[in-house]
Amino acid sequence: MARRNTRRQQSTGKPAWVWFVLGNFVGGFAVFVFLLNDLKTGQTQVAKRADKPAAEQPAPGESKPRFDFYKLLEESEVKVPKPKNPQVRVREGDSDDSPVRSEPKSDLVYILQAASFRDKGEAERLRAQLMLANLDVKVESATDNRGTWHRVLVGPYTNRSKMAAARGVLAEHRLMPLVLKRPAQS
Prior knowledge:
The protein has 4 helices and 4 strands; from the N terminus they run ααβαββαβ. The protein is an alpha+beta fold. Strand 2 and strand 3 (147-157) form a beta hairpin.
């Protein structure tokens, strides 16, 4: 294959730096004209202020700003009626009388599936690590058409805040658990 000897054609226009310098000069001149015009209008305003007699200008101590803010606040105040049926409950087992909101009783429990393994030894190893992290862990075996899986389950938890705390501990162990909802066993 023959090598082509083509040269790049030189442009006959002006180089780019010439256009850059020319643009800067034009822009600088436009800014100069704008500032010069602004300076002239500022001087005429100062001259007009100086021409006003002293009687027309208010004394600095005489004029105080008036704020209607406080009156407007009083007029726009909204009265909120007290709730007829407060839903405040006391935790069970607490000795003090401080009212605390509690979640309604549900027939579901939350279980976190930390991981699933085909090898029971790996599942038991993870179970031991999570038990050292003070979690309630068990291994459940399930069989399907692909074989036997050993699932590492954490829980059960009756409310979402305890489940969220357990998810945080699992995240520290670099695990992303699945949240399972199951009916509570009484």
